[in-house]
Each structure stands twice: as structure tokens, then as C-alpha cells.
Amino acid sequence: MQTGTVIKSTGSWYNVRLDASNEVLQCRIVGKFRLEDVPLTNPVAVGDRVEVQPEGTGQGMIKKIMPRKNYVVRQSPRRKHDLHLLAANIDQAVLITTIVQPDLKPGFIDRFLVMTERDEIPVTIVFNKADVYDEADLERFVEMKEIYEKIGYGILLTSVPQKLGLEAFKNVLKDKTTLVSGQSGVGKSSLVNAIQPQLELRTGEISDYSGKGQHTTTFAEMFELDFGGRLIDTPGIKTLAFNDKDKANIAHSFREFFALSKHCKFGGACLHRDEPGCAVHEALRRGEVSELRYANYLALLDEVEEQNYWERKKEF
After folding, report:
1. Which of 81, 83, 193, 213 keeps 20 to 30 A from 239, CA to CA?
2. DSSP 3-state of 211
3. Over the stretch 114-165, which tens digit does the pLDDT of each residue have?
4. Are 110 and 193 part of one and the same domain?
5. Are residues 198 and 110 in contact, defined by beta-carbon separation less than 8 angstroms?
């Protein structure tokens, strides 16, 4: 039995780089792996540490998944009762987004942060394609920067044609294992290629018909960075939904609301809706928390509430 790290997941096969030899084996899995009794579409994630039994030339069988220090999971876009692992054992996450081309979806940023907040995974939000921003777009960027820096998230402004922010982006990734994600079309692959050209990640264009990005990354994959660190590239995400969260999970995942909840009349049980003595409401009135974040929070609460109880608790 040998140990290694999963560096690529294609759904049915997993590439594992062995610790001892640095050899990469194509591996299958034995049996069923579950996460907190919830079925997974991909029971093994890129970044997982595993024990492998080599079988023949260049192949093997994953026998055991070692304990994870953290993981990022989302609801499967195709099977609503299942979860999909994006990555495991990461030091940080980077979310690539834009103000335009495609248009900014602030709700998507907060959905992504809900995924990472449970394990307190540091996140940097990169606003890419600055070269196509007009004056109003730049003002919007400044607004978003103020909102998210205030609550402890890193913010970068980047442009590949202008070579803006590339060195800062490189410094964020250096010597860390980083999950890099974003919606389709935000220029994630072009940005990564700009700082690490030899990776030659596939790039795509925005659809003239829909104004949305086209998928270019098909499978999650880990790459070594020649300036130090490892990058986990993930397929472009079109939507993010949650079947593993309840209302309390959502409330605790908005860090500034969670910090204020100790001052709420009902403490950690307060959902910051209509409850009396709510510290979040008071902070909103004083302009101390973001109205945009609060609106996104309420939308997420409504969404998880609308999921039928029996659908979320379906027996398998």
C-alpha cells in the first residue's frame, strides 16, 4: 500500500501522485464513500490524501481516504439530493469574478463564501477584466472592495491585457494549496496562464447569444506552480445551490452577522429577520453592515427554507 495525493478527478478515474516515487497512477475506488451520511457524486476530491494499492502498469485502486483537514462541497448541479466535492485539504480559495463580461452577480460571491466559511478557509476575491470597465464599473468595483475588505476578505483588481495585478495574484498563490474557482467566462484560465504560461489552460469566449461564459475546464485538476505552491483548477460554475445547509448554517456563514449575533436577544438562534432585539438590524440601521450582503443573506434563507424537508432528508 502506498500513499499519495489526488491530482485529477474525471468522475470515474482519479490520478494519484505517489509520495515515494512521484509517479502518477490512474486509480479507481473500492466500495462507497459518503460524507456525513450524504451521497456524493464524486466521493474522492482533488487534494485528497489517499492510500493506494498499485495494480499493473500505471494503475491502482484507492483503498482509503485519509482524514481531511477541510473540504469545499456544493450541491450537485445534476442530482439535487447529492453533494459534489470541489476540493480537499486546501490552504485558501480564490474566487475569480468580473464586473462586466459577464455581468457581476453579487449573490454568487456570497454563495461561494457560504461554502468556504464553515472551515474558515481564507478567500481572496479577484475582479478580473479591468481593461473593459468603464467609470461606472470601476465605481462598482470600489463599492464591492469596501464591502468585502471590511469583513476580512482579500480583494484584487486584475487585467491580463494591461498586466494589472498579476504580480499580486502570483503572490497570493505562492507557497499555498489554492482552490481557484469562478463562474464561466470570467477569464480564470487566461489569468492563470498569464502567471504560469506552461500550464496552457484552455480558454474560451463569452457567448454572443447568452452573454455568458462557456465551460473550458472539464475536470478538477491540481497543478504545481514553478514559483511555489499548488493550484486546483475547477470547472466554471454556473449556479451554486445547497442541500446540506439549514437556516442556522446560512446565518453562521455570514461572518459579520455571526459576530453580531452574541448581542442579539436570542443569541445564536436569531435568524436576523423579524426577531426583536436583533443586533444585525441595529447595525443595518446604523449603516455598519452591507445592505447588499443582507439582501443576499435573506435570499439564501428563503431558498433553503423552500427546499421541502423530505427532499432534503430523503433516505437512500
Report:
1. 193
2. coil
3. 999 989 999 999 999 999 999 999 999 999 999 999 999 999 999 999 999 9
4. yes
5. no
- The pLDDT tens digits for 58-108 are 999 999 999 999 999 887 767 777 788 889 999 999 999 999 999 998 899
The amino acid that residue 286 corresponds to is R
User: Cell triple for residue 238?
Assistant: 454556473
Amino acid present at 24: V
> Do 211 and 103 meet the contact criterion of CB atoms below 8 Å apart?
yes
Question: Domain boundary at 67, 97, 119, which?
Answer: 67
Spatial distance between the Cα atoms of 191 and 129, rounded to a whole number of angstroms = 9
- Supply the range of the domain harboring residue 153: 74-233
Q: Which residue has the cell 469574478?
A: 97
State the cell numbers at 288: 455598519
Rounded distance between C-alpha atoms, residue 316 and residue 83, angstroms = 13
| Domain co-membership, 99 together with 133 | yes
* E strands present in the chain: 2-9, 14-18, 24-29, 49-54, 59-65, 71-75, 83-88, 92-98, 123-128, 154-157, 177-182, 220-224, 230-233
Question: How many other CB atoms sit within 10 Å of the CB of residue 213?
Answer: 22
Partner residues linked to 212 by β-bridges: none
